[in-house]
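Training component of the fellowship. As part of building independent skills, the fellow (R.M.) carried out the full modelling exercise for a liganded target. The chosen ligand was adenosine-5'-triphosphate. The inputs are recorded below so that the supervisory panel can assess the work.
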Amino acid sequence: EWLDVSRFDVASVVRELSEVLGKTFRRQIRVHFDGHAVQMKGDKEKIRQLLLILIDNAIKYSKEPIDVRIRLSKGGVKLEVTDYGIGVPESEIPYMFERFYRVDEARHRSTGGSGLGLSIAKKIVDIHEGNVEVFSKPGIGTTISIQLPRKL
Ligand code: ATP
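Fellow's submitted model of the complex:
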């Protein structure tokens, strides 16, 4: 897998992307982080793409504000995107990251997704040796939590 690795501030990637997407889609995207910068080693453009996929999904599958959290954890950083939208049934969560998989396809056809986003997101997490957790309840919302090591 080809990676363009550098040291960068992932907190500023989160802030800049949230601002651009908030303005573009006229949605409230709130970034929660106590600190200023979080240096990490990785592929900056791929991490940006990963966040774009998660925030784009949160925009498509909810109407309320979106919360993006940055948390420092032992040796790593946790990036969490929370929406208060349609949610995903527990039984479907294991399949969300498969290529072309869409939950209740008919209902979501209007948003025009391809079902590829999360499979690409998972790949980006994997090549950074991170992991993904999903917390979701239908009608309540979804949190996708990404844990990334700060050194690759
Ligand atoms: P695209 O490839 O354009 O992103 P997509 O959103 O359909 O299209 P994925 O990002 O791979 O594809 O997501 C797969 C499916 O998981 C979605 O079709 C949707 O059913 C479900 N899903 C993903 N994110 C959310 C979310 N935040 N809330 C509710 N359902 C979600």
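The panel noted the following from the submitted structure. The two ends are 14 Å apart (CA to CA). The pocket of adenosine-5'-triphosphate is lined by residues 53, 57-58, 60-61, 83, 85-88, 96, 101-103, 108, 113-119, 142 (CB under 6 Å).
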